[in-house]
Design a protein that fits this description.
This protein has 329 residues and is an alpha+beta fold. It has two domains: 225 residues, 2-Layer Sandwich (Creatine Kinase, Chain A, domain 2), CATH 3.30.590.10; 85 residues, no CATH class. The protein has eleven helices and ten strands. The chain has an eight-stranded antiparallel sheet with strand order 2-3-4-5-1-8-10-9. Helix 7 crosses helix 8. The longest helix has 27 residues.
């Protein structure tokens, strides 16, 4: 898999023909629709775990938001219901914008297989009640931009060189201006200390699934190639570079820090990951990527007996990082 891609997923949106769109749906209909989906999944061999956004406490909400496939914005809608498969490689989100959003994890080399799996889940859910479809447009969705195939590809990208050299804003404007794709900071603001970005396809009408996926892969490759070119150009030949200095400073801090806030960690982690990719640091890229998961708030809460103690978490985060990098000294 392309090293700039941390995660990849395929989305599939559908709406039942028998119900109005979410914006005008009654609560009683939402409950019936939810029960319909639950009944279908109960007959499957795999286990699906149901979460209702309105009933989640803080601990459960944090844990779900850090699940690879969950978009935290879904949980801000009290009507949203999530059904997460036990392997956490697939989920079904109900009552967000559309009746159903199916998300399946993938890697870029096998995203077409993930789309196929999402379609299989959709076909299962449509056996007893058909989805809304227009002969000319295709599958109908709450937002016209998703109508047609209802398929989207999403990529979580690490783009530190483009960020540090302040090229990411211009690239985002160019990508977003096409209306076919959307590139946004995961942090939701310009600071984005981890230099993490979500690239997703947007307009799906009047196109074949294969061409949509190919176009999304091409857009992802263009962005990551620009990142790779900058990294090679700036880091390979410049022995006295402010970017090299930032990488080594970040490495030293993560090796010895006793306290790390999440923002601090993400900033240093991003630079260390850049150094690992460039072969400058004595650490495997997989170990650096594991740190992103192991220092998540949800994981750290487990080390505080389930209590969200921010003061303690900052120290535990540093302990986890030191232990992973050189045994915790």
């Amino acid at each position: 898999m392309n090293d700039s891609v941390l995660t990849c997923f395929a989305d599939l949106r559908r709406n039942y023909a028998a119900y109005p769109f979410e914006s005008t749906m009654l609560e009683a209909d939402r409950q019936k629709l939810t029960q319909r989906v639950v009944n279908v999944l109960e007959g499957r061999e795999e286990t699906w775990i149901l979460y209702e956004a309105r009933d989640l406490d803080l601990k459960a909400r944090v844990a779900l938001e850090e699940t690879e496939l969950v978009d935290g914005r879904w949980l801000q809608n009290p009507a949203a219901v999530l059904l997460v498969r036990s392997d956490r490689k697939a989920l079904i989100c109900l009552h967000e914008q559309d009746h159903i959003l199916i998300r399946v994890a993938a890697d870029p080399d096998h995203i077409k297989a993930a789309v196929g799996e999402a379609k299989e889940i959709a076909a299962l859910l449509a056996e007893q009640a058909p989805f809304a479809k227009d002969e000319r447009i295709g599958w109908l969705t709450a937002k016209p931009q998703y109508a047609g195939t209802g398929v989207q590809a999403g990529f979580l990208l690490h783009l530190p060189m483009l960020t540090m050299m302040q090229q990411i804003r211009g690239l985002s404007q160019k990508v977003n201006g096409t209306k076919r794709f959307w590139l946004e900071a995961v942090a939701g603001d310009e600071k984005n200390p981890g230099a993490l970005y979500l690239l997703s396809s947007r307009f799906t009408a009047y196109s074949r699934t294969e061409s949509l996926i190919e176009a999304a892969l091409q857009q992802m490759e263009e962005l990551t190639q620009k990142e790779d070119n900058l990294r090679r150009k700036v880091l390979k030949y410049a022995t006295r570079s402010i970017y090299l200095d930032q990488i080594y400073r970040a490495w030293g801090i993560l090796l010895y820090a006793r306290r790390l806030t999440q923002t601090e960690f993400l900033s240093y982690w991003s630079k260390v990951r850049l150094g690992a990719r460039a072969g400058l640091l004595p650490v495997e890229l997989s170990a650096v990527d594991a740190l992103l998961r192991d220092t998540s708030v949800g994981r750290l809460i487990q080390k505080t007996d389930g209590v969200l103690d921010e003061h303690a978490i900052h120290f535990i985060r540093a302990d986890v990082v030191r232990s992973a990098l050189h045994g915790g000294t």
